[in-house]
Amino acid sequence: MSRANHERITGNHQQNEHLIRPRSVYNNESNESLQSLSLMMILKSTTRHIHIFTAEIRDSELVPSENVLTLDVDPDNEFIWATDSLQKVYQKFDELVESYSGADLTDYNLRRIGSDLEHLVRSMLQAGEISYNLNVRALNYSMGLPRVAE
């Protein structure tokens, strides 16, 4: 995966909405292995709070792409996010994608990126950078019970 240009969808990540951010992260013209990727197939990595797709957003639909990875952070709105917290996740995503520069785009590589981002979300929760959204439809404390200061 070699780096190309970036696209952004900006907005506020609040309790009742989530942010999907497409990111162009590789250029298939320089990587022959991506030439065989079918345009009808979307590779994806989905964890509880991180979804990554080989697709771009057109008219509110995911469209398979050989040039764009789309990152969806906290699709169930389980957490309350500050802009700085989201930027931290996006920055880590950029770093992880850059670390795979030149590598084949595979399910395994996408899952590794997704898992690393999921661990980042957990560490942010434990550090108090994000908090559970108590107004979410199904409160389940998927990353452990909230901690109370002693």
Radius of gyration: 16 Å
What number of structural domains do the residues give?
1
**How much is the average pLDDT?**
76
What is the global morphology? globular
Q: Report the sheet-strand fraction.
A: 15-25%
Class of secondary structure makeup: alpha+beta
Low-confidence stretches: 1-39
So what's the oligomer here?
single chain
* Tally of individual helices: 3
Number of strands: 8
Strand order of the largest sheet: 1-6-3-2
CA(first)-CA(last) distance: 46 Å
Helix content: 25-40%
Instruction: List SSEs in N-to-C order.
Output: EHEEEEEEHHE
Summarize the main sheet.
4 strands, antiparallel
Task: Label this structure with key terms.
two-stranded antiparallel ribbon, alpha+beta, 8 strands, four-stranded antiparallel beta sheet, 150 residues
Task: Describe the fold and architecture.
The protein has one domain. It has helices at 32-35, 83-99, 107-126, and strands spanning 19-24, 44-46, 50-53, 55-58, 61-64, 68-73, 79-80, 131-132. The longest helix is centred in the last third of the chain and has 20 residues, at 107-126. Helix 2 packs antiparallel against helix 3 (107-126). It is of the alpha+beta class and 150 residues long. The chain has three helices and eight strands, in the order βαββββββααβ.
How is the topology of this model organized?
Layout: E1 19-24, H1 32-35, E2 44-46, E3 50-53, E4 55-58, E5 61-64, E6 68-73, E7 79-80, H2 83-99, H3 107-126, E8 131-132
Helix pairs in contact: 2-3
